[in-house]
Amino acid sequence: MTIHRPPTACSWAFTLLRIAIGWHLLYEGIVKLTAKHWTAAGYLADATWLLAGVFRRMAESPAILHAVDLLNMWGLTLIGLALVLGALTRTSAVLGASMLLLYYAANPPFVGLRGVTGEGSYLVVNKNLVEAVALLAIAVMPRAWLYGLDQLARSRKRQGDTVTQPASVSSHVADCQADGPTAQRRQVLRQLVGLPVLGAFFVAARRKRRWDSLEEKFLVEAQADGVSSATLKTLHFSKLKDLKGTMTYGRIGPLKVSRLILGGNLIGGWAHARDLMYVSDLVKAYHDDDRVIATFRLAEKCGVNTFLTNPKLLRIIRKYWKLYDGHIQYIADCTGADLHGMTRLAIDGGAHASYVQGATADKLVQDGKIDEIRWFLDTVRSHGLPAGIGAHRIETVKACIAANVRPDFWVKTLHHHNYRSAVENVQKQDNVLYSIFCPDPAETIEVMKQAPEPWIAFKVLAAGAIKPQDGFTHAFNSGADFICVGMYDFQMVDDVNTATKALAEVAGRPRPWRA
């Protein structure tokens, strides 16, 4: 059978398709190779479809996980390099398609499956599937249809032996020889198209690396210029160089935790802005991925090493860990009607500790379902993680203690009532004072004084109604071992300075440090 060469435009189109996929895979591999702590553990643990059990067992075995990480990093790099250059095209295309289909099988975009949330919107078909199908098409395509090193090697070999070649290829070589050296040079340049593309790749990768470093300098060191903004008022905020003192740490189980913990409400859009209904949307618009990553970076540089938030924010936390070499620890607050599902999401997502969120624990105690809290503690501990109980109402803490349901740490609200909205809004709604998150601060201090477990105090600023200098000092002097505070990036340095100062001046604590 005679294999005819396609029009030149088709050859270029198929070659560019192969190079584009190779570029993507090559960069994915190099990013993973150059990241200090990249691992496929999170992706494997999130597997939701075919072979989900196998993938999760891979994530749980350090030896297997190490092998899987190496295969991913070097496989993507070498397959991508081969596709760009057109070397061993069929083999690399088949191997590349196989890897992409494994990625697809682990986390397909099917309705009803809760797997890894990637960029973009997909329904059944995602970029992994599209690239896998394209590579399979390239694998079965006649090699004469693609420009690359494979075809160059074949042409060189056939120049001395045109008798055994297929008619179409023999005639093509003969045509090139008949046209003279110029046609031969053009043919060779076509087959070497991957080399200048590879050069462009490394130039672009170097520029990307430099841009990331420059972006980090401006974002992390807070080099924004408030004076030239569109607002009439100037925002003055401290920069990293203005950091004073050193953050101190305590322990929750095996975890070394900063006394000041970054809260996730502002990043997640739970602003608690009372009557200002637009604020939650405003803070969500402010906190795009780049802003959140910059906030995490700045927190770590300031000594804040722990982030507390809902497992729904796992996507951005994993992105920070995997792509930006982040190390911030994550404490998950499990909430809602599906406590079991939320618990599994937190554990599989890589949480360093987890607790029953305050409003959820309050409701379970009120409904007589304290065994649900007991189940949660047992489940989290069975995975080697510290397990906690949250509460807004001190009655929740007392009920758990009375039932001998003891956590590894408490997460309890604490703030005084000396702020304007607490005085003006004294009516009760659902047995909780409106705009008051700790209804009984004196009783909270008295009960927690007897608790031997570490205590993370939250809502210490009453959702922005109390100044940090006042709220931080009150919390630490009242017995809290840690405070969890939602912070914008431009507040970070000032809040860390305020916390370190409050810690250095602690006096009259009613309980010893429990962490």
Briefly say what this structure is:
The protein has 515 residues and is α/β, with parallel strands linked by helices. It has helices at residues 8-34, 41-45, 52-60, 62-85, 89-106, 127-140, 149-159, 167-179, 181-191, 194-220, 265-268, 279-286, 289-301, 314-323, 339-348, 358-366, 370-382, 394-402, 420-424, 441-449, 468-477, 492-504; strands at residues 249-252, 255-258, 260-263, 306-309, 329-334, 353-356, 387-391, 409-413, 428-429, 432-433, 455-458, 482-486. The protein has 2 domains: 8-148 and 193-207, no CATH class; 251-504, TIM Barrel (Alpha-Beta Barrel), CATH 3.20.20.
Walkthrough of the structure:
α1 (8-34) packs antiparallel against α4 and α1 (8-34) crosses α6. This protein folds into two domains: 8-148 and 193-207, no CATH class; 251-504, NADP-dependent oxidoreductase domain (TIM Barrel, Alpha-Beta Barrel), CATH 3.20.20. 53% of the residues lie in helices and 10% in strands. With 515 residues, the protein is of the alpha/beta class.
Secondary structure elements and pairings:
Blueprint: H1 8-34, H2 41-45, H3 52-60, H4 62-85, H5 89-106, H6 127-140, H7 149-159, H8 167-179, H9 181-191, H10 194-220, E1 249-252, E2 255-258, E3 260-263, H11 265-268, H12 279-286, H13 289-301, E4 306-309, H14 314-323, E5 329-334, H15 339-348, E6 353-356, H16 358-366, H17 370-382, E7 387-391, H18 394-402, E8 409-413, H19 420-424, E9 428-429, E10 432-433, H20 441-449, E11 455-458, H21 468-477, E12 482-486, H22 492-504
